[in-house]
Write a structure and sequence with these properties.
It is found in: Cell projection, Ruffle membrane; Cytoplasm; Membrane. It is a peripheral membrane protein. This is Acyl-coenzyme A thioesterase THEM4. It comes from Nocardioides dubius. By secondary structure, the protein is an alpha+beta fold. It has two domains: 83 residues, no CATH class; 112 residues, Hotdog Thioesterase (Thiol Ester Dehydrase, Chain A), CATH 3.10.129.10. It has a six-stranded antiparallel beta sheet. Strand 1 and strand 2 form a beta hairpin. The chain is globular. The two termini are 27 Å apart. The structure holds decanoyl-CoA. The site of decanoyl-CoA (MFK) has 16 residues, from helix 5, strand 3 and strand 6.
């Protein structure tokens, strides 16, 4: 039984198909491909190429983009954002978290922000907010009785600088349910140090 199915035990209806996850789409090499995509994003943060090199790199990347566009599938069939065996479900636009625990108590994840997520000397606040929003999606997905829940608002308090390149621990849970409204809380720690905490409201909606 996958962690997603275990956590699903409290729902009165199945998870929407798009949220069930799989570990096969895109094949066994897909994780390494996404890791390389992340590495391109990281490396791009630390270069100041001359014009010639910039044009060469652009041409190289254009060829790769064309190859990917030639094998595009409808988004609901895509591997990215569906692979529950990969960091952040294989979605390169998300910070690469790994789920440590998922259940009706909420979700615990390990996250390593990287060069691509750098703001000024620490992780960019928007990336921290993105992490919380995604993890709140996990936490609420397993507490709504049907459909799923969308973010109505999400507030982050940045308590101390959030480092990149080291494992951090995030915890997000549903504190209270009031009809369709789910009140969600979350924390992000570097060891014992609180980096950020989060308050959000999610609203249960049909999966349509
Ligand atoms: C395992 C896979 C995990 C995948 C995770 C992915 C997670 C991604 C999560 C997201 O990022 S979702 C994308 C970002 N969110 C949106 O795009 C939502 C856009 N807004 C909407 O679609 C609607 O405004 C919304 C669904 C949030 C609410 O509209 P509704 O028409 O369904 O609800 P309504 O306006 O009737 O409000 C219902 C209740 O919520 C309250 N409410 C709604 N928005 C609020 C708000 N912003 N602040 C405070 N209260 C709010 C509202 O007052 C009311 O309270 P009462 O029932 O007590 O009267």
């Amino acid at each position: 039984m996958t962690s997603t199915q275990q956590a699903d035990a409290g729902r009165t209806s199945e998870l929407p198909k798009w949220a069930r996850g799989n570990s096969h789409r895109g094949g066994p090499g897909f994780g390494e491909l996404i890791e390389q995509v992340r590495s391109v994003m990281d490396a791009s943060r630390f270069i100041a190429p001359g014009d010639d090199v910039a044009r060469e790199l652009t041409a190289d990347l254009s060829r790769i983009v064309e190859r990917m566009q030639a094998i595009a599938v409808p988004v609901d069939d895509a591997a990215a954002d569906s692979r529950e065996d990969l960091p952040a479900r294989g979605n390169p636009s998300l910070p690469p978290f790994e789920i440590i625990d998922l259940g009706s108590e909420g979700v615990v994840a390990e996250i390593v922000f990287r060069a691509f997520h750098l703001g000024r000397l620490s992780a960019h606040g928007g990336n921290i907010s993105l992490l919380f929003d995604e993890l709140a999606g996990y936490a609420t997905m397993h507490r709504v009785t049907s459909g799923f829940a969308r973010t109505a608002f999400l507030k982050v308090d940045y308590r101390s600088l959030t480092p990149i390149d080291r494992p951090l621990r995030a915890r997000v849970w549903v504190e209270e349910i009031d009809g369709r409204k789910l009140h969600v809380l979350g924390t992000l720690h570097d060891g014992d140090r609180l980096c950020a905490d989060m308050t959000a409201l999610f609203i249960q909606v049909p999966d349509a």
